[in-house]
Amino acid sequence: MEQELHTIKRTDETDDILLAALKLFAEQGYFNTSLTDIAKAAGLTTVSSIYQSFNNKQAIAIKLNDMIFDSLNVSIDDIRRRNQKASEQLRSFVNLLFKLTDEAPNIMRFLLVMQTNEFIPQQKPLLETPAFTKVVKIMQAGIRAGEIRNIDPLLATGFFLGVINNTLRMVLSGELEKNADAYQPQAWLAAWNLIAKKSTCF
Amino acid sequence: MEQELHTIKRTDETDDILLAALKLFAEQGYFNTSLTDIAKAAGLTTVSSIYQSFNNKQAIAIKLNDMIFDSLNVSIDDIRRRNQKASEQLRSFVNLLFKLTDEAPNIMRFLLVMQTNEFIPQQKPLLETPAFTKVVKIMQAGIRAGEIRNIDPLLATGFFLGVINNTLRMVLSGELEKNADAYQPQAWLAAWNLIAKKSTCF
DNA sequence: GTCTATACGCCGATAGAC
DNA sequence: GTCTATCGGCGTATAGAC
C-alpha cells in the first residue's frame, strides 16, 4: 500500500478518501477521476459522504499536496540535521527519493509527473517549493565549502535533480524495468559527479 | 508566434484551430480548455465550425501530437544524416531542443511537460516514441564507436536527457530567468560529460 | 450523520435552417 | 458551409428525509 501516505496513520475515513484519491489521481489523472470514482475506491456507499471531510474535489488534492510536501520538508530538515557535508546530505536525500519511488510510487508520481498547477493554481514549480529550496540551500553551502563546483546553485540543482528525477520518472512509467533502487548507485554517481568539484573521471 | 508549428505553413482555418489549441493546451492544460475557448482563440464565430475540421476534441490533440513528433522525427533523421559522430549528432539535437524552447515554447511544453497520456491513452512515454528511440540508437552507436561510456544505452539517454530536459523545463516554467539558449553551453557540457568516455575534468 | 434524490452548470456533440 | 438552437450526459454539489 501507499506506505500510509508515508507517515500519516490511517485512522478514519478521511484517510481512506485521501489514499483512494492519491491512487486514482496518480494513475489516471485528476481530471479523469470523478468523486464517484474516489468514493467507490474508498469503500464509501455514497458520494455525499466525501463532503463530510472535504468541501470540494480540489480540497482533496490540496490536502494531499500539503501532506506530501510537509512530510518531505520534515525529512529534509532531518537529513540536514543528521549530516554535515553537502555530499552526505544530498546522498541521503537521493536515497529517500529512490526509496519512496519503490515504496510509495503514487506519492512520487504526485511529486514528479502530475501537473498539479492545472488544478491547484497557486502551486509553484518544484524548485520553488519550501522543501526543494532547501536542496538549493544545500547546494549553496556545498559550493561555499568547496565540495561543489562554483556554478549557479539553482542551475546545479536543476542538473542534479534532472538526472535523479528523470531516472525515477522512467522507473515510474515503466521505461526502466527494474525497481528504482537498482539504479540508485549509478544515478547517484552520475548526478554527484555532475556537480562535484573533484569529479571521478572514467 | 509558434513558428508555424515549426514547419507547417498556416493555410486555412484548420491550422488556426491547431495553433490556438496548442497555445491553450500548453498554457492551461487540455482539460481546462473547452472547445469554446479554442474557437474563440482561433477567431471562429462558432464552436460548430471546429467540427468541419475535426471529429472531436481529442482529434485536435492527436493531430497536434502527430505533427510535433513527426516534425521532430524528420529533424532527427536529418541530424543523423548530416553528422557522423555521436557527439556531433547529440550536439545538434540538443541545439534543436534549445532553439525550439525559445522559438516555440508551447511545442516544448507539449513535448516535455504535458501529460498527454491522460487524454491520448495510446500515447507512449517519451523515450519509447519513434523520435526519441533514435536518440537511444545514437547512444548505442556512440558506445560501439568508443565515444560514449559502456553503460545501458537507455539509462545513458535518461541521464543525458534528464539534464537537458530539466533545464528546459525550468526555463519554460520561469524558474530560470534567461532564455534557454543562455544555458545551452553549460547544459550541453554537463550532459555530454555525463556519458562521454573521456570526460573533461574540472 | 447517513443516504436518496435531485438540482444545476458546463461541455461535447448534433440537427437542421438558411 | 455557416450559424442557431438544442440535446444529452456527466460530474459537482446540495437539500432534505430518515
Task: Report on the architecture of this protein.
The structure is a homodimer of 202-residue chains. The longest helix of chain A has 26 residues. Chain A is an all-alpha fold. Chain A is elongated, with a radius of gyration of 18 Å. Chains A and B meet through helix 8 and helix 9 of A and helix 8 and helix 9 of B. Chain A binds a DNA duplex (18 and 18 nucleotides) through loops.
Map the helices and strands.
The structure is a homodimer of 202-residue chains.
Chain A: H1 13-28, H2 35-41, H3 50-53, H4 57-82, H5 86-103, H6 105-112, H7 130-144, H8 153-173, H9 180-195
Chain A binds a DNA duplex (18 and 18 nucleotides) through loops.
Concise structural overview:
Chain A has 202 residues and is mainly alpha-helical. Helices cover 65% and strands 0% of the residues of chain A.
- Which two chains form the greatest contact, residue counts included? A-B, 39 and 40 residues
Rg of chain A computed from alpha carbons, rounded to a whole number of angstroms: 18 Å
End-to-end Cα distance of chain A: 40 Å
Mean model confidence by pLDDT of chain A? 93
- Helix-strand pattern of chain A: HHHHHHHHH
Roughly what percent helix of chain A? 55-70%
Shape label of chain A: elongated
| Separate helix tally of chain A | 9
Outline the low-pLDDT stretches of chain A: 6-10
| Sheet having the most strands of chain A | none
Q: Count all strands of chain A and give the number.
A: 0
Oligomer: homodimer
Beta-strand portion of chain A reads: under 5%
